[in-house]
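User: Structure with N-oxalylglycine, C-alpha coordinates only please.
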Amino acid sequence: MELLSSWCYDGSLPESYVMPPERRPGNLVVPLEKSIPVIDLQCHDPKDTIQQILKASQDYGFFQVINHGVSEELMDETRNVAEEFHAMPGLDKERECGKDPNGSCKLYTSSYAYPREDFHYWRDAVTHPCRPLDERIQYWPEKPTRYREVVGTYSVEMWKLSCRILEFICEGLGLSVDYFSNDLTQVPKIMINYYPPCPAPSLTLGLSKHCDPTIITILLQGQINGLQVFKDGRWIGVQPLPHAFVVNIGYLLQIISNGKLKGAEHRVVTNSRYARTTICFFVYPRDESLIEPAKALVNASNPAIYKAFKFVDFVTAFVLNPDDTGEAVKELITLNP
Ligand code: OGA
Ligand code: NI
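Assistant:
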Protein backbone atom coordinates (compact mmCIF):
# COMPACT_ATOMS: atom_id res chain seq x y z
CA MET A 1 0.00 0.00 0.00
CA GLU A 2 1.43 3.30 -1.02
CA LEU A 3 -0.12 6.48 0.32
CA LEU A 4 -1.85 8.59 -2.29
CA SER A 5 0.02 11.66 -1.11
CA SER A 6 3.32 9.97 -2.03
CA TRP A 7 2.63 9.80 -5.77
CA CYS A 8 -0.53 11.63 -6.76
CA TYR A 9 1.01 14.79 -8.12
CA ASP A 10 2.26 13.34 -11.40
CA GLY A 11 -0.64 13.57 -13.75
CA SER A 12 -3.43 11.34 -14.85
CA LEU A 13 -5.89 9.27 -12.83
CA PRO A 14 -4.83 5.60 -12.69
CA GLU A 15 -7.32 3.04 -13.94
CA SER A 16 -7.78 1.62 -10.44
CA TYR A 17 -9.40 4.90 -9.32
CA VAL A 18 -11.90 5.09 -12.18
CA MET A 19 -15.35 4.13 -10.86
CA PRO A 20 -17.86 2.25 -12.98
CA PRO A 21 -20.18 4.79 -14.66
CA GLU A 22 -23.10 4.25 -12.26
CA ARG A 23 -20.93 5.13 -9.26
CA ARG A 24 -19.26 8.21 -10.66
CA PRO A 25 -20.15 11.53 -9.11
CA GLY A 26 -21.92 12.65 -12.28
CA ASN A 27 -22.81 16.29 -12.27
CA LEU A 28 -20.21 17.76 -9.94
CA VAL A 29 -22.01 21.05 -9.69
CA VAL A 30 -24.67 20.05 -7.20
CA PRO A 31 -26.65 22.74 -5.46
CA LEU A 32 -24.78 24.04 -2.43
CA GLU A 33 -27.91 24.51 -0.49
CA LYS A 34 -28.58 26.66 2.46
CA SER A 35 -31.21 24.10 3.37
CA ILE A 36 -29.07 22.01 5.70
CA PRO A 37 -29.90 23.66 9.01
CA VAL A 38 -27.37 25.88 10.78
CA ILE A 39 -28.03 25.85 14.51
CA ASP A 40 -26.80 28.48 16.95
CA LEU A 41 -25.87 26.69 20.18
CA GLN A 42 -25.66 29.95 22.10
CA CYS A 43 -29.30 30.61 21.52
CA HIS A 44 -30.91 31.42 24.83
CA ASP A 45 -33.97 29.25 24.52
CA PRO A 46 -32.84 25.64 25.02
CA LYS A 47 -36.29 24.32 24.04
CA ASP A 48 -35.90 26.00 20.68
CA THR A 49 -32.38 24.60 20.20
CA ILE A 50 -33.64 21.11 21.02
CA GLN A 51 -36.45 21.44 18.50
CA GLN A 52 -34.08 22.64 15.79
CA ILE A 53 -31.65 19.79 16.41
CA LEU A 54 -34.41 17.22 16.45
CA LYS A 55 -36.01 18.48 13.27
CA ALA A 56 -32.68 18.62 11.42
CA SER A 57 -31.87 15.10 12.63
CA GLN A 58 -35.22 13.83 11.35
CA ASP A 59 -35.25 15.65 8.03
CA TYR A 60 -31.58 15.50 7.03
CA GLY A 61 -29.60 13.56 9.61
CA PHE A 62 -27.21 16.50 9.18
CA PHE A 63 -26.83 19.99 10.58
CA GLN A 64 -24.11 22.56 11.22
CA VAL A 65 -23.49 24.20 14.58
CA ILE A 66 -22.16 27.70 15.21
CA ASN A 67 -21.40 29.47 18.51
CA HIS A 68 -20.50 26.03 19.78
CA GLY A 69 -17.96 27.19 22.36
CA VAL A 70 -14.84 25.72 20.71
CA SER A 71 -12.29 28.45 20.07
CA GLU A 72 -11.56 29.44 16.49
CA GLU A 73 -7.88 29.45 17.33
CA LEU A 74 -7.99 25.78 18.38
CA MET A 75 -9.94 24.87 15.24
CA ASP A 76 -7.36 26.62 13.03
CA GLU A 77 -4.42 25.10 14.88
CA THR A 78 -5.90 21.63 14.60
CA ARG A 79 -6.38 22.02 10.88
CA ASN A 80 -2.82 23.29 10.51
CA VAL A 81 -1.39 20.33 12.41
CA ALA A 82 -3.60 17.98 10.39
CA GLU A 83 -2.30 19.46 7.13
CA GLU A 84 1.29 19.30 8.36
CA PHE A 85 0.83 15.65 9.26
CA HIS A 86 -0.29 14.65 5.78
CA ALA A 87 2.46 16.79 4.21
CA MET A 88 5.19 14.68 5.88
CA PRO A 89 7.01 12.00 3.85
CA GLY A 90 5.20 8.64 3.78
CA LEU A 91 7.85 6.85 5.82
CA ASP A 92 7.61 9.45 8.59
CA LYS A 93 3.86 9.03 8.70
CA GLU A 94 4.21 5.26 8.94
CA ARG A 95 6.73 5.55 11.75
CA GLU A 96 4.63 8.08 13.67
CA CYS A 97 1.56 5.84 13.40
CA GLY A 98 3.38 2.69 14.45
CA LYS A 99 3.94 3.40 18.16
CA ASP A 100 1.26 1.11 19.53
CA PRO A 101 2.16 -2.62 19.36
CA ASN A 102 -1.60 -3.24 19.26
CA GLY A 103 -1.97 -1.03 16.20
CA SER A 104 -4.53 1.41 17.64
CA CYS A 105 -3.23 4.21 15.41
CA LYS A 106 -4.04 3.40 11.81
CA LEU A 107 -2.75 4.96 8.63
CA TYR A 108 -4.25 3.97 5.33
CA THR A 109 -5.14 5.07 1.86
CA SER A 110 -8.57 4.81 0.20
CA SER A 111 -10.48 2.68 2.75
CA TYR A 112 -9.34 0.21 5.43
CA ALA A 113 -10.26 -2.52 2.94
CA TYR A 114 -7.69 -1.39 0.34
CA PRO A 115 -6.47 -4.88 -0.66
CA ARG A 116 -10.04 -6.09 -1.25
CA GLU A 117 -11.29 -3.04 -3.15
CA ASP A 118 -12.41 -3.25 -6.79
CA PHE A 119 -11.35 0.36 -7.16
CA HIS A 120 -9.85 2.91 -4.84
CA TYR A 121 -10.94 6.21 -3.35
CA TRP A 122 -8.99 9.42 -3.61
CA ARG A 123 -7.98 9.91 0.01
CA ASP A 124 -5.46 9.10 2.75
CA ALA A 125 -6.47 8.87 6.40
CA VAL A 126 -5.07 8.52 9.88
CA THR A 127 -7.26 7.43 12.78
CA HIS A 128 -6.80 6.70 16.47
CA PRO A 129 -8.86 6.45 19.66
CA CYS A 130 -8.76 9.41 22.04
CA ARG A 131 -10.29 8.38 25.37
CA PRO A 132 -9.15 8.15 28.08
CA LEU A 133 -6.67 10.63 26.71
CA ASP A 134 -3.80 9.85 29.09
CA GLU A 135 -3.85 6.17 28.07
CA ARG A 136 -4.21 6.80 24.34
CA ILE A 137 -2.04 9.81 23.63
CA GLN A 138 1.24 7.90 24.13
CA TYR A 139 0.53 6.03 20.89
CA TRP A 140 -0.25 9.10 18.77
CA PRO A 141 2.18 10.71 16.34
CA GLU A 142 4.84 12.92 17.93
CA LYS A 143 5.45 14.67 14.65
CA PRO A 144 4.46 17.32 13.70
CA THR A 145 5.81 18.46 17.07
CA ARG A 146 2.55 19.95 18.30
CA TYR A 147 0.37 17.04 17.17
CA ARG A 148 -0.29 15.55 20.60
CA GLU A 149 -0.83 18.84 22.36
CA VAL A 150 -3.17 20.33 19.76
CA VAL A 151 -5.10 17.21 18.75
CA GLY A 152 -5.32 16.22 22.44
CA THR A 153 -6.93 19.54 23.37
CA TYR A 154 -9.17 19.33 20.33
CA SER A 155 -10.37 15.82 21.22
CA VAL A 156 -11.31 16.96 24.74
CA GLU A 157 -13.35 19.82 23.26
CA MET A 158 -15.01 17.46 20.79
CA TRP A 159 -15.89 15.10 23.63
CA LYS A 160 -17.59 17.93 25.52
CA LEU A 161 -19.42 19.15 22.43
CA SER A 162 -20.62 15.65 21.51
CA CYS A 163 -21.95 15.13 25.05
CA ARG A 164 -23.80 18.42 24.86
CA ILE A 165 -25.37 17.62 21.51
CA LEU A 166 -26.36 14.15 22.70
CA GLU A 167 -28.04 15.67 25.76
CA PHE A 168 -30.09 17.92 23.50
CA ILE A 169 -31.01 14.91 21.40
CA CYS A 170 -32.05 12.93 24.50
CA GLU A 171 -34.32 15.71 25.62
CA GLY A 172 -35.80 16.00 22.17
CA LEU A 173 -36.47 12.28 21.92
CA GLY A 174 -37.73 11.94 25.50
CA LEU A 175 -34.82 9.85 26.78
CA SER A 176 -33.14 10.50 30.12
CA VAL A 177 -30.35 13.05 29.61
CA ASP A 178 -27.70 10.53 30.64
CA TYR A 179 -28.88 7.88 28.18
CA PHE A 180 -25.54 8.02 26.35
CA SER A 181 -23.30 8.54 29.41
CA ASN A 182 -22.08 4.96 29.35
CA ASP A 183 -20.51 2.33 27.10
CA LEU A 184 -22.46 3.63 24.11
CA THR A 185 -20.07 6.56 23.68
CA GLN A 186 -16.83 5.56 25.40
CA VAL A 187 -14.61 4.82 22.40
CA PRO A 188 -14.49 8.04 20.39
CA LYS A 189 -11.93 8.27 17.60
CA ILE A 190 -10.30 11.08 15.70
CA MET A 191 -9.85 10.66 11.97
CA ILE A 192 -7.93 13.05 9.76
CA ASN A 193 -8.79 12.72 6.08
CA TYR A 194 -6.66 14.09 3.29
CA TYR A 195 -8.01 14.45 -0.27
CA PRO A 196 -5.31 15.74 -2.62
CA PRO A 197 -6.22 17.68 -5.78
CA CYS A 198 -7.52 15.09 -8.24
CA PRO A 199 -6.75 14.98 -11.98
CA ALA A 200 -10.23 13.70 -12.91
CA PRO A 201 -12.86 14.54 -10.27
CA SER A 202 -15.77 13.39 -12.43
CA LEU A 203 -14.47 9.81 -12.60
CA THR A 204 -13.74 9.07 -8.96
CA LEU A 205 -14.74 9.80 -5.37
CA GLY A 206 -12.98 10.72 -2.14
CA LEU A 207 -15.37 8.51 -0.21
CA SER A 208 -18.27 6.45 -1.52
CA LYS A 209 -21.87 6.77 -0.37
CA HIS A 210 -22.01 5.61 3.24
CA CYS A 211 -23.63 6.11 6.58
CA ASP A 212 -21.22 6.46 9.52
CA PRO A 213 -21.25 3.40 11.82
CA THR A 214 -21.34 5.75 14.83
CA ILE A 215 -23.69 7.30 17.36
CA ILE A 216 -22.87 10.76 16.01
CA THR A 217 -20.01 12.32 14.05
CA ILE A 218 -18.66 15.85 14.36
CA LEU A 219 -16.75 17.06 11.31
CA LEU A 220 -14.48 20.03 10.77
CA GLN A 221 -14.60 20.36 6.99
CA GLY A 222 -12.70 23.61 6.45
CA GLN A 223 -13.17 25.93 3.48
CA ILE A 224 -13.23 23.51 0.57
CA ASN A 225 -16.42 21.94 -0.85
CA GLY A 226 -16.60 18.19 -1.14
CA LEU A 227 -19.11 16.74 1.33
CA GLN A 228 -22.49 15.83 -0.13
CA VAL A 229 -25.62 14.47 1.53
CA PHE A 230 -28.14 12.17 -0.16
CA LYS A 231 -31.63 13.50 0.44
CA ASP A 232 -34.86 12.58 -1.35
CA GLY A 233 -33.01 10.86 -4.16
CA ARG A 234 -30.50 13.59 -4.95
CA TRP A 235 -27.18 14.92 -3.73
CA ILE A 236 -26.82 18.24 -1.98
CA GLY A 237 -23.56 19.90 -1.00
CA VAL A 238 -22.82 20.90 2.58
CA GLN A 239 -21.73 24.49 2.36
CA PRO A 240 -18.44 25.23 4.12
CA LEU A 241 -19.09 27.85 6.80
CA PRO A 242 -16.11 29.40 8.57
CA HIS A 243 -15.62 27.85 12.01
CA ALA A 244 -18.80 25.82 12.00
CA PHE A 245 -18.91 22.10 12.75
CA VAL A 246 -20.91 19.67 10.66
CA VAL A 247 -22.78 17.14 12.81
CA ASN A 248 -24.32 13.98 11.46
CA ILE A 249 -26.47 11.29 12.96
CA GLY A 250 -24.82 7.88 12.76
CA TYR A 251 -26.43 4.59 11.83
CA LEU A 252 -26.42 3.47 15.47
CA LEU A 253 -28.43 6.48 16.62
CA GLN A 254 -30.95 5.82 13.85
CA ILE A 255 -31.43 2.38 15.39
CA ILE A 256 -31.50 3.57 19.02
CA SER A 257 -34.09 6.21 18.08
CA ASN A 258 -36.12 3.42 16.44
CA GLY A 259 -35.95 5.18 13.11
CA LYS A 260 -37.02 8.61 14.37
CA LEU A 261 -33.66 10.13 13.52
CA LYS A 262 -31.96 9.57 10.22
CA GLY A 263 -28.44 8.25 9.80
CA ALA A 264 -27.94 10.16 6.59
CA GLU A 265 -25.98 8.81 3.65
CA HIS A 266 -23.19 11.00 2.41
CA ARG A 267 -20.09 10.92 0.19
CA VAL A 268 -17.08 13.03 -0.69
CA VAL A 269 -16.29 14.36 -4.17
CA THR A 270 -12.86 15.60 -5.15
CA ASN A 271 -11.73 18.69 -7.03
CA SER A 272 -8.80 19.39 -9.31
CA ARG A 273 -7.47 22.55 -7.63
CA TYR A 274 -7.34 22.31 -3.88
CA ALA A 275 -6.24 19.76 -1.36
CA ARG A 276 -8.92 19.16 1.29
CA THR A 277 -8.14 18.12 4.86
CA THR A 278 -11.02 17.24 7.20
CA ILE A 279 -11.12 16.13 10.82
CA CYS A 280 -13.77 13.74 12.07
CA PHE A 281 -14.68 12.98 15.66
CA PHE A 282 -16.51 9.66 15.62
CA VAL A 283 -18.50 8.69 18.71
CA TYR A 284 -18.34 4.89 18.98
CA PRO A 285 -19.60 2.41 21.62
CA ARG A 286 -17.51 -0.27 23.24
CA ASP A 287 -17.39 -3.54 21.32
CA GLU A 288 -19.64 -5.36 23.77
CA SER A 289 -22.32 -2.63 23.93
CA LEU A 290 -25.80 -3.75 23.07
CA ILE A 291 -27.41 -1.56 20.40
CA GLU A 292 -31.19 -1.60 20.24
CA PRO A 293 -34.15 0.75 19.99
CA ALA A 294 -34.39 2.60 23.32
CA LYS A 295 -37.01 0.97 25.56
CA ALA A 296 -38.54 4.37 26.30
CA LEU A 297 -39.32 4.83 22.58
CA VAL A 298 -40.92 1.45 22.04
CA ASN A 299 -44.49 0.50 22.97
CA ALA A 300 -47.52 -1.27 21.52
CA SER A 301 -48.23 1.47 19.01
CA ASN A 302 -44.53 2.03 18.21
CA PRO A 303 -43.02 -1.43 18.02
CA ALA A 304 -39.27 -1.83 17.61
CA ILE A 305 -38.31 -1.81 13.95
CA TYR A 306 -34.75 -3.10 14.54
CA LYS A 307 -33.25 -6.09 16.30
CA ALA A 308 -30.79 -5.83 19.20
CA PHE A 309 -27.14 -6.63 18.41
CA LYS A 310 -23.67 -6.17 19.80
CA PHE A 311 -21.66 -3.31 18.35
CA VAL A 312 -18.78 -5.64 17.50
CA ASP A 313 -21.09 -7.75 15.31
CA PHE A 314 -22.25 -4.61 13.54
CA VAL A 315 -18.66 -3.63 12.80
CA THR A 316 -17.94 -7.09 11.41
CA ALA A 317 -20.96 -6.88 9.13
CA PHE A 318 -20.18 -3.30 8.14
CA VAL A 319 -16.61 -4.10 7.18
CA LEU A 320 -17.83 -6.81 4.80
CA ASN A 321 -19.66 -4.28 2.70
CA PRO A 322 -19.58 -0.65 3.82
CA ASP A 323 -20.74 0.79 0.49
CA ASP A 324 -24.37 1.72 0.17
CA THR A 325 -24.99 0.08 3.54
CA GLY A 326 -24.57 -3.56 2.68
CA GLU A 327 -26.65 -6.65 2.97
CA ALA A 328 -24.76 -8.06 5.94
CA VAL A 329 -25.72 -5.03 8.05
CA LYS A 330 -29.35 -5.19 6.94
CA GLU A 331 -29.51 -8.84 7.89
CA LEU A 332 -28.07 -8.15 11.34
CA ILE A 333 -30.43 -5.29 12.23
CA THR A 334 -33.67 -6.37 10.52
CA LEU A 335 -36.38 -8.09 12.52
CA ASN A 336 -37.68 -11.33 11.08
CA PRO A 337 -41.27 -10.90 9.93
C1 OGA B 1 -16.09 10.21 6.90
C2 OGA B 1 -16.69 11.33 6.15
C3 OGA B 1 -16.47 13.57 5.25
C4 OGA B 1 -15.41 14.52 4.80
O1 OGA B 1 -14.85 10.23 7.10
O2 OGA B 1 -16.85 9.30 7.30
O3 OGA B 1 -17.84 11.25 5.81
O4 OGA B 1 -15.83 15.60 4.31
N1 OGA B 1 -15.92 12.41 5.89
O5 OGA B 1 -14.23 14.23 4.92
NI1 NI C 1 -18.85 9.72 6.92
